Amino acid sequence: MGKSVIIINGPNLNLLGRREPEIYGHTTLADIETLTRAHGETLGLDVAFFQSNNEGDLVDAIQDAAERHGGIILNAAAYTHTSVALADAIKATGLPVVEVHLSNIFSREEFRHHSYISAVAAGVICGFGAKGYVLALEALAELID
Ligand code: CA2
Known about the structure:
Layout: E1 3-9, H1 21-24, H2 29-43, E2 45-51, H3 55-68, E3 71-75, H4 84-93, E4 97-101, E5 123-126, H5 131-143
Parallel strand pairs: 1-2, 1-3, 3-4, 4-5
Helix pairs in contact: 2-5, 3-4
């Protein structure tokens, strides 16, 4: 079996490219899926993609990843700043996780400066828009090598 990773996206990211383009850009989540799948091929990685607006579904996706994938790229969106449950799930999987944010969360409101994910992630990429997912794939490819 080849190497496989999953990209997990949290609440409201399904709206990407259709609302607030001044913050999140014009790229849609479907564009990011296409981009990362293509880049995954160049790295020999199979890329699965998942988005949910519900915290419990995201916890389930992280738990299920342990059975199927070698690593996770996670943009937990607003749950980044609130969810002990997601942090616990990441810790329990033992899989390497790269945390991604489209925007630079440190140049935004104070409440976005703290992430429950960062302490349990292998690393964090933020502020580079959709390219951040590609950079995360590069990082994850080395981590699961
Ligand atoms: O910059 C990021 O990727 C965020 O994870 C995006 C979250 C935000 O709560 C985090 O602080 C940073 C918000 C995702 C909402 O996405 C939308 C996209 C288009 C229109 C409205 C919301």
